[in-house]
Amino acid sequence: MRLLTQRSMELAVRMSGELQYMIELSVVPVMKVLTMCALGTLLAQPKVNIINPAATRLLSKLVFALFLPCLIFTELGESMTFQNMLHWWFIPVNVMLSYFIGCVAGVLVALICKPPAQFFRFTVVMTGIGNSGNLPLAIIGSICHGQSQPFGNKCNQSGVAYVAFSQWIAVIVLYTFVYHMLEPPEEFYELVSDEGELDASVKRNNVALAALETEESMPSVTSAEWPGVFSAMTEESRTPLLSRVFRYPSVSSHSSAVEGDGDSPRARVRCLAEPRVVRKIRVVAEKTPIRHLMQPPIIASVLAIFVGIFPNTNALLFGDDAPLGWFTDSLTILGAALVPCVMLVLGGTLSVGPGSSELGMRTTIGISVTRLVLLPLIGIGVVLLAHKLGVNPHGDKMLMFVLLLQHTMPTAILSGAMTSMRGYGEREASALLFWQHVSAVVTIAAYILIYLKIVTQL
């Protein structure tokens, strides 16, 4: 009896020590991120005024155009090989699955919470599309900075490589699916008919809703992560497209007639032979802003993959004996500035508060709870099923952790940037992103604890 009691006490002490270790691994990284954000908020206060609006814009541009591309190129390029690229195929697939499941959940949220009619598609997108960029990189950087992390010596390099490898599919989804889902509602536009041709013009009383930020105001969270959001705005991006093309036949007919003008036989054949549905799809595809896909982080990812899959090029840039090692070392030093700068910018932009929103408290809570609490639980099932089917390389704990983390993030900030580009729902997106990032401090810490327990047992 005494021996049994002693063993029970030893087991309780061991489990208590293991639980304390896991809590430290999960809470400490989030506290690091929170501390950097808090410093950004403090330095952005009017009495301190160190991170002022001008400094925030400059710092966000540096992050977007320099620090993030440098980090992606150095870490992904060194890890990338042709064999690894074949092994990592489930990373972008996992992102697509998380978006699909999230959007289905978003439809249910919209049906249950009943937001204003014009925000139905907005609710679906904000529930379904999670952040796959700066925030996961910041969390991985904070975890790998600790001495007791369980991911090995190449913790940060592997984590950054996996996150960077998933960004290209996320950007494609944002500039295609999200762009069209966030199309402005027709009631905010005047449709003017002129000999069968429909043209959309923005109502004057709604121009103020999409007014550009002044130099004296702190940039929003969306424009801080994507500094070029306002320069990407055009009158075309702020007018309804799908409703014009698919609801009004004359629009696609007129577009086809214009494109078919000319004496070339190819133009006449396409005009005569192309079915109406195919023509409408082509018009929508041509109006999709694919030109914005090649942003600096995506260019860095493409270059890293191109360099990594060719052994000779890889050996030229990476490794202890690399002839151009001094160049990649310089980029590594610049990339190390990403995490603190991103968190300072995020803290500064969140210091202005949530702002006004017409979305409604019930819908805001529904989106946040679904995005931060329910979808990670579903994501655990998806990743564990993939692991059971042998999809993931055996023994790669960081890969499992990144796959799980992809289901845990708050709404993608670039989805909010799309609302600015489309000219509708910007205030609602800013308020929603504010409350989600505040709530994510608790939910991410809790799920990191669960994820670490999962990856250490597999």
TrEMBL record:
Q: Where in the cell is it found?
A: Membrane
Q: List the InterPro entries.
A: Mem_transp_PIN-like (IPR004776), PILS2/6 (IPR039305)
Stretches assigned to coiled coil: none
The UniProt entry lists membrane topology as:
Multi-pass membrane protein
What's a GO biological-process term for it? endoplasmic reticulum to cytosol auxin transport
Q: Which UniProt keywords apply?
A: Auxin signaling pathway, Membrane, Transmembrane, Transmembrane helix
Q: What is its main location?
A: membrane
In terms of superkingdom, the source organism counts as: Eukaryota
Pfam families, per the entry:
Mem_trans (PF03547)
Give me the segments passing through the membrane: 21-43, 58-76, 88-112, 118-140, 160-182, 298-319, 331-353, 365-386, 398-421, 433-452
In the UniProt record, does the keyword Transmembrane helix occur? yes
Please indicate if the UniProt record lists Glycoprotein as a keyword.
no
Gene Ontology CC: one annotated term: membrane
Q: Could you tell me what this protein is called?
A: Uncharacterized protein
Provenance organism: Physcomitrium patens (Spreading-leaved earth moss)
